[in-house]
Amino acid sequence: MLSLLEQNPSLRWLGKQLFNREDPAAFFDPLLEKLNPMWVRQYVPARVRSVTDETVDTKTFLLEPASRWAGFEAGQHVNIGVDIDGIRRNRTFSLSSSPRQWHSDGTVTLTIKRLPGGLVTNWIHDNLQVGDVVGVGDAFGDFRVPEDQEPALYIAGGSGITPVLSQLETLAASEYSAPVTLLYFVRTQADIIGARKLYDLRQSWLALTLEIVATNESATPQFLSSTHLDGVAGIDERRCYLCGPQGLMDLAQELLGQRNIRKDRIHSTFFSVPKAALASDDLGGEVTFSRSNTGVTSEGDAPLLEIAEAANLSPRYGCRMGICHQCSCKKASGTVVNRLTGQASGPGEETIQLCISVPQGPVTIEL
Ligand code: FES
Q: Candidates 3.40.120.10, 3.60.15.10, 2.40.30.10, 3.40.50.720; correct CATH number of 2-136?
């Protein structure tokens, strides 16, 4: 948004005046509505209050969303909207602070790792400063804290720790007394994200067992193994939470499965679309967007969301990875394949998620 303001001297002057006020929403909404009505519908403005280095490639941004933002539950994600060179870009991040913090002082934190080649994460790292404003969407996701004092095991890797930080802080504040173990895998000690928060929690919350594994700091790399799980007391009774790179999550699922821990007691969340192996030979086809009177031909494993955008349509979306259901849309006819599971749909009318649905032959979508 700042770049748009900077393109126009009068807007820039107006922006400076407005920045002096206390409530971002009160002054930004009318301005945003003129620039881009989608901002107001999809986002709540949030001012950056501080920026803290976590590691060499990860920063924590303390944000103060306008008070009309609906809040979140520990472990949920939000979409963040920023304008880069005049184009609005959206990305999904997990909130790393607890809902209690939002309720007490109106702030939340996002802990964001710089991704190699990542347009938005690199822009945020290089440009977003104290006083700037970003758009924050509604929170979503069903990675939720355990209930009823159940013993829990968290397995996290790298920046997958961010929703776990929110959950651990929430459990500690609720005086959760059942045993909670965190196995946190990082490459080196210097890559620990949220180190101070984790060490403070270990100090103040007796239920927490914290084991940080620096995989690259021993003669042979130490990946998750049965030995780590053997060290978790009463593991068969634990509810398990996984968040990290796909390889770690797959390995954790396999090792927990070998211990006969039921799938409904294993919860996971992810940061990119884990693609099932799709046989791309029979994918693609004629796609008709019936309400827009638009027809296009698709090839390969492109999902319907990208196909629609390539046809200059603007379907609603959020996470773009199958979590939030904001892209749900009616399929009138045809078969689509789910990118997450590899499962083909039936041929008839049903609701699908555009971001993870790949046409398999001719498809008609009510968009
Ligand atoms: S955009 Fe979130 S599920 Fe499709």
A: 2.40.30.10
